[in-house]
């Protein structure tokens, strides 16, 4: 990918956040190509899904270099903008986070997600001041790379931070304001599904909001109507495919028949055509 092409894709990706974006999350080149073929204007990566395909659990179990290789394959497989899930940045310090942003920018991504979850039980979230410094470093690195879109994720809802719903909202607003002030383009709040709270967050922050859709969440149109600029799916599609695989496996084991396999069969010729490019 040329620098000119990447800059064009970055501008396109930014513009997509103005009209309510649905961002499916790919875990390999095949899933990315299928999402592109199905008409999606941009694609995200899922760090959890990539970890699963490597036989690992979620939570920064891959190194920066390992994740970079997987994301590079996804970027090379499609012609639409790709947003990379870089987890917590593969290092605690601002310098390490900046290096991570530069590393992924070099393979042609148009945006990155950076989360505030540490993965440590003793301190599940980075202290606010520390995360602000990390985001500021990510912003500077993103600007050096042509203005990559920076999506700041907070896990206040996923981790159930706060004794009450009010406390959780207040902490999310506190972090969200600080993250946006540090240079984030949007705030990502996975685990938030209450539409009234979504409306409050969007009104109070006044900036793009990213939510996660999937089973148990309101529909994508409902999330967009409540104020989400972007809805992503995380590892949801891959987990659904694991469920389908389990159903196919049970039938093959128990009866040796192909009903479940036939139900979702894409076709050999269609698959070859999908990868002909």
TrEMBL record:
KW Lyase (keyword) present: yes
User: Which Pfam family, giving just one, matches this sequence?
Assistant: PEP_mutase
**Lyase as a keyword?**
yes
- Under what name is this protein listed? Isocitrate lyase/phosphoenolpyruvate mutase family protein
Name the keywords, alphabetized. Lyase
Q: Which domain of life is it from?
A: Bacteria
GO molecular function terms here? lyase activity
Q: Which organism is it from?
A: Deinococcus hohokamensis
Q: Which residues form the signal peptide?
A: none
């Amino acid at each position: 990918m040329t620098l000119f092409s990447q800059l064009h894709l970055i501008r396109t990706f930014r513009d997509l956040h103005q009209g309510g974006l649905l961002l499916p999350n790919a875990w390999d080149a095949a899933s990315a190509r299928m999402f592109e073929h199905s008409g999606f204007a941009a694609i995200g990566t899922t760090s959890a899904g990539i970890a699963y395909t490597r036989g690992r659990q979620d939570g920064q179990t891959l190194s920066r270099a390992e994740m970079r290789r997987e994301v590079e394959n996804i970027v090379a497989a499609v012609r639409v903008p790709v947003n990379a899930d870089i987890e917590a940045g593969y290092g605690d310090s601002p310098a390490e986070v900046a290096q991570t942003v530069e590393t992924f920018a070099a393979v042609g991504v148009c945006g990155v997600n950076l989360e505030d979850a540490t993965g440590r039980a003793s301190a599940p979230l980075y202290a606010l001041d520390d995360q602000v410094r990390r985001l500021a470093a990510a912003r500077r690195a993103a600007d050096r790379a042509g203005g990559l879109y920076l999506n700041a994720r907070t896990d206040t809802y996923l981790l159930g931070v706060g004794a009450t719903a009010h406390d959780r909202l207040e902490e999310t607003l506190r972090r969200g304001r600080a993250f946006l002030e540090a240079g984030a383009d949007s705030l990502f709040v996975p685990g938030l599904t209450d539409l009234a709270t979504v409306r409050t967050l969007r009104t109070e922050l006044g900036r793009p909001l990213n939510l996660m859709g999937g089973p148990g969440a309101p529909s994508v149109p409902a999330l967009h109507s409540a104020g989400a600029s972007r809805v992503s799916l995380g590892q949801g599609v891959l987990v659904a495919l694991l469920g389908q695989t389990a159903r196919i496996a049970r039938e093959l084991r128990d009866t040796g028949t192909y009903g479940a396999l036939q139900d979702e069969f894409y076709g050999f010729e269609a698959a070859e055509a999908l990868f002909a490019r």
